[in-house]
Amino acid sequence: MSSRGRPKKYRIVSQDPRISLFSPRGRPGRPDEIGVATDEFEALRLADFMGYSQKVAARHMRVSQQTFSRILARARRALADGVVNGKIIKIQGGTYVISSRENPSPK
């Protein structure tokens, strides 16, 4: 069965995350796991860590500002779920391409 709708556009990511798994300490047993896609991680890095505006960060990832906003909201929701509920946070997957270009192309 073929997928419906428009195919996802590749997001531009500067590099793979150095650490891809965060695990809570002090929680007995095997905690649940929550996934964060690599493009969601990049959105968090650009907006929250680097302090870029959504418009500038969207240009870096070569997506629209609205798409960037949705990616960022999904990432923040997943991260909050992992921290609040003591889940393992696993960074992997997503629709992305690694690019080392410093200056994004203007839109």
Q: What's this entry about, in short?
A:
The protein has 107 residues and is an alpha/beta fold. It has 3 helices and 5 strands, in the order E-E-E-H-H-H-E-E.
What report would you give on this structure?
- The protein is α/β, with parallel strands linked by helices.
- It has a domain at 11-17 and 32-98: Arc Repressor Mutant, subunit A (Orthogonal Bundle), CATH 1.10.10.
- The chain has helices at 38-49, 54-61, 65-84; strands at 11-13, 21-22, 33-36, 88-91, 96-98.
- The strands form two sheets. A three-stranded mixed sheet has the order 2-4-3. A two-stranded parallel ribbon has the order 1-5.
- α1 (38-49) runs antiparallel to α2 (54-61) and α1 packs across α3.
Into which percentage range does the β-strand content fall? Answer: 5-15%
> What is the CATH domain class of one domain?
Mainly Alpha
CATH architecture of one domain: Orthogonal Bundle
- The dominant shape is globular
The main β sheet shows up as: 3 strands, mixed
Secondary-structure element string: EEEHHHEE
Mean pLDDT: 87
Q: Mind telling me the C-alpha Rg?
A: 15 Å
Key descriptive features of the protein:
alpha/beta; 3-stranded mixed β-sheet; 107 residues; 5 strands; globular
